[in-house]
């Protein structure tokens, strides 16, 4: 009875599910050994997990001379979760299986400035279509993961203090989704969920800093294997840290020369558009295209933005000593000059011990880390032993 003392309460179905999901136990005999439960108690709990669809039974090859052993496996197809990643200029929606694999996804080409009712209303329509595309329909939706830019009050499910999202402040978002899809909703910051997704994509890394550089700039921190949200959910809000020797541009937050007004995608669009024909540069995609064409101004400005980002990241690197800085967001298409600037500043300003093996890489999930991270966020909750027990007893 490894890890269980005689005074522990008997293992629940939810705890047995965790043993199967984590690959610790795959047969009823192994479950009995891990939990100390009797054969009948194991059979009853496994029966409920099988009936609910969270695990399936696979008849394996017979061991030499023995009876074929029935192996229990986590059933990725035993339900779905919905993922909705809200962005300032566009959003993404997806239907995922229980491992967080995307089954169907789409972009919602609507700025968040239209307000939460209009945007989430459109998202519900898109999600209905995606459920049809995925072939799963409405049944078996186990949860919804939602991310929004800026600071999130996860308990209340709303955003606080997001200057880039006018009209979203303190509006409860989960009811807009649960009205149509009655399932538990988890809400978090957009970069936090990207950090969860990149952490899952890098199982060898326990300490990583996820940096999103799109319309704004933000970071998400995984430390010691766990996402760090901070006391009020504002950890990683690096966009409003002022950089030194800036040109003196005022920011919506009241400060001057915040990272976000100098080194975000929006700032680069502004700086590159200056002196060019009207409409020549109006989106982050235009900036990325110019960099890819080798436009000297674009390459130079992105490198300077990278240096400013690196100036702020250097302090973070010294403070938390990540193994990996993963960079995502729409500007990652201009990765080479961006990361050249970041490296220059980080190596100049960080201690050698913090940087000697530091990896600075584009995120592995490209444009998908937002929705995959939303799925992981809610899966962590709804597949926890306590939630599984609550579902089975309801
Ligand atoms: Zn600011």
UniProtKB/TrEMBL annotation:
InterPro entries membership: ATPase_NBD, ROK, ROK_cs, Tscrpt_reg_HTH_AsnC-type_CS, WH-like_DNA-bd_sf, WH_DNA-bd_sf
Keyword terms: Kinase, Transferase
Origin superkingdom: Bacteria
PROSITE patterns xref list: HTH_ASNC_1, ROK
SUPFAM superfamilies: Actin-like ATPase domain, Winged helix' DNA-binding domain
Keyword match Kinase: yes
Example of a GO MF term: kinase activity
Keyword field contains Transport: no
Family stated for the protein in its record: Belongs to the ROK (NagC/XylR) family.
Protein name: Sugar kinase of the NBD/HSP70 family, may contain an N-terminal HTH domain
Organism, as annotated: Pseudonocardia ammonioxydans
């Amino acid at each position: 009875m490894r890890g269980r003392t005689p005074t522990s309460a008997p293992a629940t179905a939810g705890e047995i599910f965790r043993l199967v999901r984590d690959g610790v136990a795959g047969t009823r005999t192994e479950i009995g050994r891990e939990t100390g439960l009797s054969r009948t108690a194991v059979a009853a709990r496994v029966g409920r997990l099988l009936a609910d669809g969270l695990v399936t039974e696979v008849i394996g090859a017979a061991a030499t001379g023995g009876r074929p052993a029935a192996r229990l496996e986590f059933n990725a197809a035993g339900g779905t979760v919905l993922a909705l990643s809200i962005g300032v200029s566009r959003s993404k929606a997806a239907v995922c299986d229980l491992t967080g694999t995307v089954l169907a996804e789409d972009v919602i080409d609507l700025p968040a400035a239209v307000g939460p009712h209009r945007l989430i209303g459109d998202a519900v329509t898109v999600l209905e279509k995606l459920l049809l595309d995925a072939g799963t329909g409405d049944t078996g939706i186990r949860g919804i993961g939602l991310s929004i830019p800026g600071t999130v009050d996860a308990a209340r499910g709303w955003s606080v203090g997001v200057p880039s999202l006018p009209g979203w402040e303190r509006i409860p978002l989960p009811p807009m989704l649960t009205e149509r899809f009655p399932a538990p909703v988890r809400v978090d910051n957009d970069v936090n969920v990207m950090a969860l997704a990149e952490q899952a994509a890098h199982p060898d890394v326990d300490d990583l800093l996820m940096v999103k550089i799109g319309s704004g700039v933000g970071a998400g921190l995984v430390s010691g294997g766990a996402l760090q949200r901070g006391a009020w959910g504002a950890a990683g809000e690096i966009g409003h840290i002022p950089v030194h020797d800036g040109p003196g541009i005022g920011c919506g937050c009241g400060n001057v020369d915040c990272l976000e007004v100098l080194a975000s995608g929006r700032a680069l669009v502004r700086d590159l558009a200056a002196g060019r024909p009207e409409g020549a540069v109006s989106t982050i995609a235009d900036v990325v295209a110019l960099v890819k064409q080798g436009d000297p101004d674009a390459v130079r400005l992105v490198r300077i933005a990278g240096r400013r980002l690196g100036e702020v990241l250097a302090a973070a690197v010294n403070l938390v000593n990540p193994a990996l800085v993963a960079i995502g967001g729409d500007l990652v298409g201009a990765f080479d000059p961006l990361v050249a600037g970041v490296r220059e500043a980080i190596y100049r300003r960080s201690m050698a011990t913090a940087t000697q093996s530091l990896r600075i890489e584009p995120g592995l999930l490209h444009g998908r880390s937002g929705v995959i991270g939303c799925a992981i966020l809610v899966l962590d909750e709804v597949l926890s032993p306590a939630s599984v027990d609550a579902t089975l007893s309801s």
